[in-house]
Amino acid sequence: MRLIAENLGGERGGEPVFSAVGFALESGQALIVTGPNGSGKSTLLRIIAGLLPAAEGRAVIEDGGDEFPSVASACHYLGHQNAMKTVLSVTENLRFWRDFNGEGVLGVEEALETVGLGGIGHLPFGYLSTGQRRRAAIAKLLVSDRPLWLLDEPTAGLDKASERRFAGLMSRYCAGGGIIVAATHLPLGLDGARELRMGD
Ligand SMILES: Nc1ncnc2c1ncn2[C@@H]1O[C@H](COP(=O)(O)OP(=O)(O)OP(=O)(O)O)[C@@H](O)[C@H]1O
């Protein structure tokens, strides 16, 4: 499987933000998107995910088969917001996403253990600390299988131990054939990742 971005251009509020962005990622490869505030990293991720229209160009999945014919069907998108309901428990939130996106290799409890949140699934999501919320949102990536992760500042709010744990998780995901595109200001510890610098 391959993710191809061809001559992508993005605009916000009718103003161009970037143009002529192109890359190709094979299964197992990762791309780190860097650049100053406002250079268009989030806009690029949202265009790739299909959440915003491209001003020009396109992003496509090749060889995704019947299961993953499009980027939208192939990706998990983790944005700045965690996309969890504060009044539902962590477990209820993750069950919702598993039912919505389809079952994955890991169950809800296993996914919570993997991000170091074992035993707190019963708590309302709104009770969690900022870093715990991010870790629960990362667990969302694990309860349904998708071959492409689009991650916007995934480690924002994480402590050092959680950063290291997430780096290991991303490495294992790529080793298993996953593709990652991650916008970040912080080093992600993802060996061998390519870099796309926006705003130059
Ligand atoms: N809804 C919107 N309407 C108009 N302009 C917007 C909108 N959302 C973002 N922008 C503008 O688009 C540009 C790119 O924003 P974007 O969030 O993609 O940048 P970024 O590189 O992700 O920034 P950061 O590093 O601060 O997260 C900015 O100039 C921003 O002000």
UniProtKB/TrEMBL annotation:
PROSITE patterns on file: ABC_TRANSPORTER_2 (PS50893)
Residue ranges of domain ABC transporter in the record: 3-196
SUPFAM superfamilies according to UniProt: P-loop containing nucleoside triphosphate hydrolases
Q: Origin, by domain of life?
A: Bacteria
Which molecular-function annotation in GO is an example for this chain? ATP binding
Pfam families the UniProt entry points to: ABC_tran
Question: Which keywords does UniProt give here?
Answer: ATP-binding, Cytochrome c-type biogenesis, Membrane, Nucleotide-binding, Translocase, Transport
Q: Which PANTHER family does the entry link to?
A: ABC TRANSPORTER I FAMILY MEMBER 1
Name this protein carries in UniProt: Heme ABC exporter ATP-binding protein CcmA
The organism's taxonomy opens as: Bacteria, Pseudomonadati, Pseudomonadota, Alphaproteobacteria, Hyphomicrobiales
